[in-house]
Structure formats: structure tokens, C-alpha cells
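user: can you give me the structure for this one chain? C-alpha cells are fine.
assistant: on it. calling the predictor now.
[tool input]
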Amino acid sequence: MSSVQRRRRRPSILRIALLTIVAGVGIATFAVSTDAFGAGHLFERAVDRIDRFIAGPVPDRPTDGTILVTAPPPTPDPTPAPTPTPRESGVVASSTPEPTPTPSPTPARVPVDVDIVTDHEAVFAHELKDTWCAPAGVQMTLAVLGRADTADDFQRELQGRVREWESYGDSHNGKWGPSAMALALDAYGARGYEVRGYETRADALRDAAVAIETTNSPVILLAWRGAHTWVMTGFRADADPRLFRDAAVEGAYVLDPWYPWISSIWGPSDPPGTFQDGAEMERNYLRWKRPEGRYPERDGLFISVVPTVAVTSPG
């Protein structure tokens, strides 16, 4: 092969290599932008890992912790006990009998249907990434309370501030935990939210129902064993749980930030404000169990972020 032929071939090989690189970059960019073969999802995960590596280890600062709520005692029988007669009590009857006090009226035990939100679409926010259910849940809670909008920019703002509130005890993997959600709500004016744990799902839903009625504020439920966020805005029960401590909550009205996506594990999500009946609560609202490590205050409990301060009316 002559030197002239070699000189002619080298530019050709270089040109092919450059075209291959350009084509590869173009294909990769298209795959990421369209999420072809899951490339966009993998790219976002890679960026998240790099971002987490640059940020450093999760701070091990104290949090308010999880409050264990025990089951209330059964509602006492509202029927007043009969007044003993003088013969039964051993008291000598007087000539003028004492007037019998009028008993207080007994509250009626009737089913209740409560929802503090009338337009669920107006306060709904879809999570922009599949790991952003927590900021989306906080955003919707604030929107219900009239303290935020549902714009994408605000969700990004919340996500960008998570390092102000995160701690190792709250989330070992350095992402959102329930305590960070409570701190975020407080930072935007929704005071008094606290993390609570319950031994049974029935106790958790009953306490959430009471909190919704007494504060006029939504409750955040940690669904999917603590991996996902639901915002509970109402409930149905066989009696008013404020009056009857043994009232059975039959389900909850929920805002699910995963909607309209479909989970390969949990199936399709439901539109904003869907009533999740008992079967759906049993399928989705499960005991806390996280793969990244142990959480002694939460493991095996049903976890929620509950309001304690009453508001005049939700937004």
C-alpha cells in the first residue's frame, strides 16, 4: 500500500469514527429524552447518585421522632345508670322526693362521610419524578391549606430544600422521610404536624379521621411500607370517631401523586379524590419496612404525618 493510499484512508477512518460518536450521542440523547428502554429513568438515577455523592453523607441530626399512639379504650355506654331507690340504698325516704335530673341526650350513632376538599383536581400535583412522591405530597397538603400552588416550579423548590430537613434517623438513604415532611410543612406555615406510629391500621385510620375533623387539615399516610406518600383528605365511618372511640373507618379519600402512572408492583393509581375502601387500604397502607436499614421507632408500625393545629377552613 502506498503512502498516498494511507493518507487517503486515515481521513476516511477518522470521519467514520466522528460520525459514529455523533450518532451515538444523538441516539443516547433521544433515548434519554423519550425514556426509550428506560434510558431516561436510568439517567436520572445516575444524576441523583452523583448529586448525592457530591452532597456528602446524610447529616445525623436529631429529629422530633415518631410518637407511638396506642389504641383508645372502648367508648363507654352512654346510657346513664339507674338511680337507686331509697330502699336499695338504705336511705330513709323523705316526704319530699328529690327531683330526678334530666339526662344529657345520647348522640346518635350514624354513619358519616367527611371530605374537607370539594375540588380534588384543583389541589392535585403529580410527582415530577418517580422518587418525588414526598415533595408532591407536601405540596398537595399545602395546597389544600391554601399555602401553596400546584405548579411544577414549587415542587422543584421543595425538592431542592430537602437537605435543610433531612437526617439519617429519618431517612437512611438521604431522601425524604416523614419527619422531613413535617419540617417542610412547618417551613411553609402549616404548623403542628407530627409523625405518629400505630400498631394497627384501624387505629391509624381512626386517629387520622379524628385529626381531619378537628383540625380541618389533611393527613399524610406513608403507603407501600413507607416507600410512597398518600394525602388523606376525608373518610367514611360507621360512626363519628370524635364521639365514638370504637368507630370503624371504612376507607379514605386520597390524593395519590403517582397518578396517572402505573406501578409494576402496586398496579394503576387512581384519580384525585378517589375513595379507597378497606380492601385498597389493606393492599396499599402497610406496616413500615424499609430495605435500607432498621428504624427502631417505626419498624412494624403504620406511619402517618398528622396535623394538630386547627385551621379555619382549607384552601
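assistant: here you go. The two ends are 81 Å apart (CA to CA). Residues 3-34 form the longest helix (32 residues).
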